[in-house]
Amino acid sequence: GVVFFIASCETPSVNLTESVSTFKIRGYQTRTYDTTDTKMVMKAMVNALQDEGFVIKVLNTDMGLITAERTFQTINKGQKFWYGVQYGYDVATIVEGNISVDRFGNQTKVRANFIEKVVNTKGGITKVKQVDDPKLYQEFFAQAQKSIFIEKEKVY
Length: 156
What we know:
Blueprint: H1 2-8, H2 16-29, E1 30-33, H3 38-51, E2 55-60, E3 65-73, H4 77-87, E4 90-104, E5 107-120, E6 125-130, H5 134-153
Antiparallel strand pairs: 1-5, 2-3, 3-4, 4-5, 5-6
Helix pairs in contact: 3-5
């Protein structure tokens, strides 16, 4: 009992660099727009995703959630040679986008999060990682800004 008590009194270590990087990532994953029309912003996000080649998988306007996927063929020739048919090799990269749209006072806040999954010939996922390249998010939000302009002006 004493050992357990002493062990349970340990304070968990806080990784400040991880917290800072998480905060930094959230910074470039989030944009705020000067409108309370969350429905219009959601439409613009759907259009931006589709313009980038994503297929919409989930659209929940009540929750302000959009989930979309884009698949790229990425055959790993080294794995194909060494592992072949028996073990499988990486053949596709799926980029999954999760977009949340929320009213934030007199504005609408959008957070985009992209995850990359590598899939092999056996249908297994061999790698999953968060896309943390600020440039990708900047490009997405630039496309989203164009879509918002089009939605606001109803320019087709």
